[in-house]
Every structure is written in C-alpha cells, then in structure tokens.
C-alpha cells in the first residue's frame, strides 16, 4: 500500500465554485487516474475516503463536486431540486463532468492512458455521460446509478469495461433497470457485468449519522432521506471490493 497525500481543489463549473477532493500516492508516478462522481446528496466523507483508498492502491483519484461545496443531508427536497434538473440535462452533466476531468488530467503524475471512473447515484450518470461522449475510460464502475436511456447506438464507440451495481431492494435503481442497460451494452459489443446485492436498498454504503455528523448506531437513518435508502454494512464492503477488483484487473491487463 502507498502513502497518501490529499488536497482540497477548487475549480469552476456550472456557475459555481466546486470543492473537490484529490488523493494521490507519494511519488512522481505516472499513476492511473480515477474520476469519482458523488451521490446526489453531495460530496461527503465516504466518497473522500474512496479516493483515499484508491490512492493507497496506487491511483490518483479526484472526487468531483457538482453542488458547489454544498451537501443536502437531511434535506431531500433541496437535494431533488438541485439534482433532478441536472439529470434532465445531459449537456449540463457533461460540462460538469468535463470540468472535473480536466482538473484530474492536469494533475502532475497522472497517466492519461490509464483513466478510470467511479460514480454513485447521480454521479454515476455524470461519468456515464462522459463515457458515451468520448472520455476514454478503460473501466467504469457505477453504484446504484441514475442511468441514461438504454440505447445500444450510444455505446458502440465505447471500449471500457463496465461494472454496474445495485441492491435488490433499491426502488430508484432496480436490478431490472441495470439489466436493461446491460443488454444495450451487450448489443453494442461492450464488456459489462452486473452485481446485485441481496437485501440492499438505495445508497446502501451510507452509514447513518447523528445530527452532528457523527456515526449513529444501527441501520436506520435518523435524518430525512428519499424513500428506499438504507445502510447495509456487509454489501458496502463487498461492493467496494468489486470496484477494486475491476480497477486492478484493468491495470493488470495493460501491464501484460
């Protein structure tokens, strides 16, 4: 494992000052690079910790921001008011994602030929929009993502490997939706796989917190959420292992 350094990165996108989290291994590299799109609630400690873990595994990781430094914990109506118009505007998602990707690619030590993506919820849709419009991701992992319409014509020029994850009890990103999207990828000739986690709900990685932000005991959220959200600690670990396996597989293939 590598020693990790982190930095707070501020950049402009969507008329806002975005506040991203950059994590990297010590050393010049070059290192494979990962762009991370956060869940609709906002960039939180979980996604920052995913960037840190990827850096420990030898990647430069940028956890983008698309809320201008805001988070919406306990404010589902405010979150939906921000996220739903964004999801309805693919061009806007691409512009937000491209701004973050440019920041990542301009980071010293990045190997632009080993580019990866990870997205949660609405952040999954952002990285998928980048992929289908030309971003050369070699591997893409999305966890309970918002999905574009499953049209094979959109993916025929995409060469990356896709990992699609959701919970069996997720009403916002159902297994059937992932399989329909996977069938479009299949028709387009794309390498893909689906992981479905039995008993898991939406945002199953999100641990409940107390009003002061400290971790809460149990599985039930104490703050208001959209319906269908629930914490599942076992599948949180399993889904992260699947992401690491995907990224390690891709890097190993490039070295062979």
UniProtKB/TrEMBL annotation:
Official protein name in the record: Dienelactone hydrolase
GO MF, one annotated term: hydrolase activity
SUPFAM superfamilies linked to this entry: alpha/beta-Hydrolases
UniProt cross-references to Gene3D superfamilies, sorted A to Z: alpha/beta hydrolase
Matching InterPro entries: AB_hydrolase_fold, Dienelactn_hydro, FrsA_esterase
Listed Pfam families: DLH
Domain Dienelactone hydrolase, residue spans: 20-249
Keywords (A to Z) from UniProt: Hydrolase
